[in-house]
């Protein structure tokens, strides 16, 4: 989360998008630092706050620093959400310190990033409807080949048999290749096509209802 960007840079795409009137945060990689796009939809009220922050407050802060002569974050860091003039980009320790302060003040419990990960995983197991079973036909060779994947609900690393759809096999490629290379919509971030985005939206809405 410390690497979120609200606008594109010359080398990296932004992480903040708007779909269906809601802000979506799309991260570039998972906890194993592998390229994997994961979408997290914000509730309507929080989406409006995020839009106001990016559209009004970030430019206003930049103008104040320029007119007052008070040093702000470097211009090269303007695209990032989490930054300040003294330390530059926040790291996990900086985010933990601020999360600790806010959670202690408003929740009465001290939470760091590491603690929050444990809490979020356990909460995910309690959210009604969050764990959705999918029944698919395994037509791979004996169903013994497995791949590692990160559970979008909990962030845990898991293994599952590779599953291919019949129509993908008829096209002489597996479903994983089909999903990542063929018939992709240019209106959506790569690896996050409409079906996957809607799955993430459903999971996010279940979280919103629980919280």
What does this structure look like?
The chain is an alpha+beta fold. The chain folds into 3 domains: 1-82, no CATH class; 91-126, no CATH class; 129-211, no CATH class. The protein is built from 6 helices and 7 strands; from the N terminus they run βββαββααββααα. It has helices at residues 44-68, 92-106, 113-126, 166-170, 175-181, 194-210, and strands at 16-19, 22-29, 35-41, 83-84, 88-89, 146-150, 157-161. It has a 3-stranded antiparallel β-sheet. Strands 4-5 form a two-stranded antiparallel sheet. The chain has a two-stranded antiparallel sheet with strand order 6-7. A hairpin with a 2-residue loop joins strand 1 and strand 2 (22-29). The chain is globular. It starts with 15 loop residues before the first strand and ends with a helix. 6% of the residues are buried. Residues 132-145 and 161-173 have low confidence and may be disordered.
* Fraction of helical residues: 25-40%
Query: Structurally, how many domains make up the residues?
Result: 3
Shape: globular
Please state the structural category. Answer: alpha+beta
């Amino acid at each position: 989360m410390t690497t979120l960007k609200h606008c594109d840079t010359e080398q990296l795409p932004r992480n903040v998008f708007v779909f269906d009137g809601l802000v979506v945060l799309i991260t570039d990689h998972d906890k194993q630092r592998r390229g994997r796009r994961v979408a997290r939809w914000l509730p309507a009220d929080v989406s409006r706050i995020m839009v106001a922050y990016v559209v009004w407050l970030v430019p206003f802060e930049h103008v104040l620093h320029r007119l007052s002569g008070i040093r702000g974050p470097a211009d090269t860091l303007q695209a990032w959400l989490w930054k300040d003039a003294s330390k530059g980009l926040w790291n996990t320790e900086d985010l933990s310190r601020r999360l600790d302060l806010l959670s202690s003040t408003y929740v009465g419990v001290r939470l760091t990033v590491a603690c929050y990960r444990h809490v979020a995983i356990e909460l995910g197991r309690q959210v009604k409807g969050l764990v959705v079973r999918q029944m698919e036909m395994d037509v791979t060779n004996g169903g013994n080949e497995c791949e590692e994947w990160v559970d979008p609900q909990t962030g845990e690393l898991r293994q599952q048999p590779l599953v291919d759809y019949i129509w993908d096999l008829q096209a002489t490629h597996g479903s994983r290749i089909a999903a990542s290379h063929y018939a992709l919509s240019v209106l959506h971030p790569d690896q996050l096509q409409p079906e996957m985005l809607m799955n993430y939206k459903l999971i996010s809405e279940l979280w919103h209802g629980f919280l």
